[in-house]
Each structure stands twice: as C-alpha cells, then as structure tokens.
Amino acid sequence: MEKMSRVTTAHSSSAISCRTMFCHLDAPANAISVCRDATQVVVAGRNIFKIYALEEEQFVEKLNLRVGRKPSLNFSCADVMWHQMEENLLATAATNGAVVTWNLGKPSRNKQDQLFTEHKRTVNKVCFHPSEVYMLLSGSQDGFMKCFDLRKKESVSTFSGQSESVRDVQFSIKDYFTFAATFENGNVQVWDIRRPDRYERMFTAHTGPVFCCDWHPDDRGWLATGGRDKMVKVWDMTTTRAKEIYCVQTIASVARVKWRPEKKFHLATCSMMVDHNIYVWDVRRPFIPFATFEEHKDVTTGIVWRHQHDPHFLLSGSKDSTLYQHMFKDATRPVDKANPEGLCFGLFGDLAFAAKESLISSDANRKPYPGGDRRYPIFFFKKPDPTEQFAHVSSALSVFETDLDSNCMDWFVKTAQLYLLCGKPFAELCDHNAKVARELKRPQVSTTWTMLRIMFSDPANLTTPGLNHSLSKLGTLPLMNSFNMKEISSGIGTESRLERSKGESRQDNLHLEPGTLHISNNNEENEETEGSEGQAEYMFGDAELDDDDLYSMEQENQTEEQEYMLPQEAFQLRHEIMDNPSAPEHLQQDKADSPHVSGNEAEVTCLTPIESFSLISISQPLFSPHLPASFFCPIVREMLSYYAEQGDVQMAVSVLIVLGERIRKEIDDLTQEHWYMSYIDLLQRFELWNVSNEVIKLSTCSAITCLNQASTTLHINCSNCKRPMSNKGWICDRCHQCASVCAVCHHVVKGLFVWCQGCSHGGHLEHIMNWLKSSAHCPAGCGHLCEYT
C-alpha cells in the first residue's frame, strides 16, 4: 500500500504531457481506462494487462499485472475499469466468465483481490458505481447482469434481461439507483438496482445488437447508444417513453461511444471493424464528423477522455498494439475538405445543383452581443474558441425541372417488365426483345436485337433451301453464319430473278461493318454492276427480310416503282483493267447469254437492285464458309459500350445476360459490375423489385450475386408459446402446435403469409384480403381493428 502510494504521489507532482504521443504495446488492447487524476492509464487485453504513466514526453510502463509462471484466464480481459473514487481499485471482465477486482495497494506482486465466478459465459462489461465505492456491476454473454458488493464474497443482486447477451452496462451519473443495459437483440433496458425482478423501462433502440451506451455527464436525461446498424442515437429518458432526439449515421458498426466533457453536443465514437479512425461528432450536425483522429492502423478497441473535465485530450487503444494520446487541436477537420458544390439528377430528369454562396450579408457589419441578455457587462461573456466551432459553409440549391412528357421513363419500366432474359432459346429471346423494342418505338434497339440473332444463332439449327424467287416482299434476313459460296452459286444460276412489287419502299444502303464481309459492290470499282444508281441489295440464303425489322425505310412519295434508266453516255469510259480476275463460270455463262451486256459498257435499260446481284464480281473468298461467333465479338463489345455511354445500361445488361458466355469474356469484370450496379439501382428506384432480383440471379459477377444473399434470414417465433421456431417445419418443437395457421380457414399457411402488426394474427394473403373487404375486425376474434394496406 505504501509503495503504490508513493508511486501515485510522485506522479501527481510530475508534469502531464500536453501533446499527441503514443507507445507500442506488447499485444493488442481490448479496453483502456484512466485513473481519477488522469496521470495513469490501464491497458487490458487477452495477452496484456499493464499500467502506464502519462509523463511529459512519453508513456512510461509502471506496473505489469500479469504475474505468475502460468497466467490464468483471469488475466485475459474483455473490459477494464478504474474506480473514480478509489485510486487503487480496478475491475476486469475476463473471457472465462470471471469478474476480478485488483488492489494496487497490495505489497505483493500479485494484485488480485476478489474473484467472482458466477457468470457462465464471457463477461462483456464491468462498471463501478460513480459514487458508491463498493458497488460493481457486470454484464455477461449469458444474458444476466450482476451487482457485487466488494465487501462480500458473492453478488447481492442478479438482473435477468429475458433476452440474449448483455453488451454494455452503465450506471447513471445523476441518478443514484439507475443503470442502463444494452442487448444483442437491439433492446435497451433501464433498471433500478433496488428492484432486480423487473426492468423499469425497455425500448428497441437499434436494428441489430447494441454494442455500447453512455449517459450524458451533464444532462441527466440523455443516453447515447451505438449499434451494428452503424448509427449513434441520443435518447431523452425524461419522458414517459424514450424519445430519439438525435441520430448520427456512421460508416461502420459502432463499438464505443463517449460523451465529450464540457461539450454538451459532442461525443466520440470508434467502430468495431473496417474503419480504424476515431470520430468526434456534433449531434446537431450529424452528416459530417466535427473532428477525426486517424493515427491507428487497425481497429480502435477502447476510447476514454483523459479527464472528466478536460475536453482536449483523448486516450485510445487499438488492435495495432498501440496506445495513443490525441490532442484535440491536432485532429483532422473533415468539414474543411467538404465540397460545397453538388450536382444530382432526379428520377424523372430533374436537375438539382448546389453551389457555394457568399457568407457576406447586408448586415454583416453588425456585431450582435455574444449573449442574449444585455443586463450584464460585455466582459462577462466568454469569447468562443474558433477551434470549437463548425466551419460556416453554406450552399444555394437550385432545382431545374424538366417537362414530364419529354422525359417520360415509361419505356424503361415497360421494357424491364417485358424483356425476356432466359428460359427460351437464344433466337426466340432476341426476337421477343426486338418485338418489345419495336412496339415501344425504339427502332435502333429493335435492330440491335435482330442483328444479334443473326450473328450468334447456330446455323446448324436452320434449313437453308434455295432462293425463293416468287417473293413479293422481303422477309427476315437469313443468318450471316449460313452464308457460303455454294449457296451464292445456286442462287445466282437460276434463270428467274427476284422482283419487287410496285409501291414498296426501296432500301438505300446496306451497311456492312468493317471486317465482317468483303464484297466488291462499288460501281466505280466494278463496271459490271453499273445497272443501278445506288448500291445493290444482296440476299444471302433463303430467309426473308422484313424491312421494318432491320432497316428504317423511306416510304414517302414512292407510290410507283422507280425505273433505273442508265444512258450510255452517263459515265465516261475507263481504261480496261487487265489484271481483273475472271468471274465464276456460271457468271460467264449468264453473261454470254445476255444480249444486253457488251464489252466494258452496260447497255441495260432496266435492272432491279436484286438482279444486279448476279453481276457481282467476287475476287476471292476472304472469310471461312461459316463465321464463328467470336468473329463478331469486337463489334458487339463496342456496341455495348456505346449503349452504356449513352446511359442505356438496360440494353447493355440485357444483352450481356442473353449472350452469356458468348460475350462475357470480352468485357472486364469491373465494367460488367458497374453496368449491373447502375441497372439494379435504376430498377430499385422504380420499385421493380422482381426484375431487379432476376437480374441479380442471372449475373455472373460475384459482387452482384451476393446482393440478394445478405439480410435474408427471417427469424420466426411460435404464435402460441412465443419461442423461436426451428427450420424443420411448421410444428413448434416446444408446444407442438402449428405456428402459422390461417385465422380464416384454420389451415397451415405454406405460401405467402400476411399478418397484422397490431395483433399478430394473419393467414393466407387471399383469405385475409377477402375478409377485410367485408369486416374491419380481426378474423381471429381478438377484437382488434385490422387494416390491410
């Protein structure tokens, strides 16, 4: 006792450090606590239990409490607290379920004082009473809280939360008999230590476990809680029902929360995973941290303000095996880096634009009183510290609305609902989607689907007889893959020629993508095709081309078939091309039989575009008889990128899913993931949940397929005994009753089950709907007025 007293006295007289500093620990820390006079800090973890002194330049190790040849699990600490009334008293929560107290005044090396082993599982939290020396409270994973009198060998009270594990317990600073406890199921309970049989108040604070809580040091009614839902909430406990007055949204699960001394609206938080920083929030401005400490390289496990009346120094321990003292003036201020400009498009094309506005107002030269009461002299008012003020940055928001008719997105919704992405052969999917796009007045998209069917369909599944020479109207274009030289020969060698019916539209151009088909069809390069004014139209195989399916036509002012008359003097004669290869044999024969062709000049009086095909000179076959699917992949990749850049990610993702492995390897995973996320976001904005889920299921990106796998567990309790149900059936294991029985037909509900959130009765969706059409009372007879929305 005397030895430790001398150490403490010597420390009290030494200067305390006033700068940011740190020291390396022997092992990761789980919790830290500071003594009453802020001169020493205790660090506890699974493999560390030491006391450090805060000297002027550095942390100095003063005492190692892990002594003995074989340290027991009592030294493996989940939490630690230093008594604020008795400077020699510590308490730890052991991972083996023990609650241990330590007396630093003992002369022996082993400072262990009391050992309580009443908890059956890990103790998560210990808390001393703020004014009662011998009262200690603990909360355990077994769901119980115990109050110990350190003058006795066992607990004096046991509190059962009737719930899952206790995560945190905290005595109220202002109310002597009150403490709060947080639980794994999201509830917070407030207890009176004089009544261990039942809590005074319980409310649901978070969705998911509540990891921490802290009473406000000045305002007796405020309780801050933090949970796995990434939120910090401040509750007003003075009302009959707990009222949420502030809420801060963080970026990770909240592991610790501590109110900042002397600052009513400031609190510090650290996360349980992912985020290593410590944040100080002003709860009145919850969207951006007031200050940030970024020194730790791993998860911060413990935070404590150095002194209960000093807001300028924060101590922290981390899994990176470091202990830090943070000086508040060295903290990063995120608001200084905040961008006051913003731009966002609304769902229907509205544009919102925020820009920084000048802070100079017309009465900026007026100097108002720092306080509102003029009865006191000005020198009584304390000048505010600029470092404790949020930066005043304001922006002006402008919203530009668009005409709803011009930016109607009905086509997007209908397309998403009508598109088929799987379940049918590839050709049928393309035809169906092309039809959907055509009906929605989107000809380019319809053409794209048709071309995809042409490029990627399997030619083995299609029959290709000779040309049908009795066509009066072109049908669908045959498959490019089925185009070969033999079929050209058989089609050209026939005596009959395809004729167009009068009044039909003319195809002006046939656009062949580079690298796909090489046929000499330019009138300037081949004299034998000079029988038409424009480029010739070509038919490959036997399938028919519907003009509306593939190309947009010019049908105005064409009531009559245009005759293609070419006077002899229309073109200047050119020199003879000596090295021109001879045409195929059947072309030569056809040429010999024709009285209209003589030498290098074309004396044909009238040739239809289809007839001119017979006069094509093919220099050599530049492609294989059957084009592989990979032949078209580069142009399809460019097409998908084009649609994505134009903002039509719906088309890009739909084609990506329908083509599947044919194109997926051509596009990198990050690009695919970006397209998927953009399309899914749009679908969810329009509340197209079923389509969104189908897209997620059909995707092959691992980052996308996991989207509908998170938070999909539904925990069911028996409606009779209120106990959790197993996953084996509809019969409760405890009471052996059917849990989901329809209140109307009294049969087990094995499909969609709808229930009233007021009385918890329900049944088959259709039965409940029909019942509530004629009656507002619950069909179970409980008397509750149910409402179906």
UniProtKB/TrEMBL annotation:
Subcellular location: Lysosome membrane
WD repeat ranges per the UniProt record: 116-158, 203-245
GO cellular component: cytosol; GATOR2 complex; lysosomal membrane
Presence of keyword Membrane: yes
Gene3D superfamilies for this protein: YVTN repeat-like/Quinoprotein amine dehydrogenase
Pathway, per record: Protein modification; protein ubiquitination
Name of the protein in question: GATOR2 complex protein WDR24
Taxonomy of the source species: Eukaryota, Metazoa, Chordata, Craniata, Vertebrata
Gene coding for it: wdr24
